Amino acid sequence: MRFVALALATSAGVGYIPFAPGTFGSLAGLLLWWLVPATVSVQLALIIAIFIVGSWSGSVAERHFASTDPGPVVIDEVLGMLVTLFLNPVGWVGAFLGFLLFRLSDIVKPFPANKLEQLHGGIGVMADDLMAAIYANLALRAVIAASNWIIG
Known about the structure:
Blueprint: H1 2-9, H2 21-35, H3 40-65, H4 75-85, H5 92-108, H6 113-116, H7 121-151
Helix pairs in contact: 1-3, 2-4, 2-5, 3-4, 3-7, 4-5, 4-7, 5-7
C-alpha cells in the first residue's frame, strides 16, 4: 500500500522532478482541471476525493520521507488548482492567471494557511494548500469581476 500512497502523493511521480516540484504539481492540477467535465458535481466530488486521498497518502509520505510536508508530495498542489478554478468561468487565459494566483498564494501562505500547515500528518499537508487555493479562487473572482466591469 505504501507504493500506492506514494504514487498518489507524488501525483504519479511528478513530485520527483528535481526543481520546482510544487509548480509542476500545480501544472498537473491544471491538466486534470482541463480533462474533468466542467460540472459542479463532478468537480466538487473530485475535490473532496483528492482531499481525502491526499490526507491519507500525505501521512504515509511523511513517514516514508521522515519529514513534515515533504517536497515530493504534490497532491496538495493538484487539489489547490482544482479549488482555485472551481466555479470560475475561465478559459485558458483565466486558468493560467489562476495558476499564477495559486502559486503566489501557496508560496506566501497568508493567514490562516501558514497555521494550517502545522496540523498533524496529511491533513496539514492538504489544509494549507486548500486555504491558499480559496484565497486564489477569490482573487481570481475579483479579477474576473473587475475585467467585466472595465470592459462592460
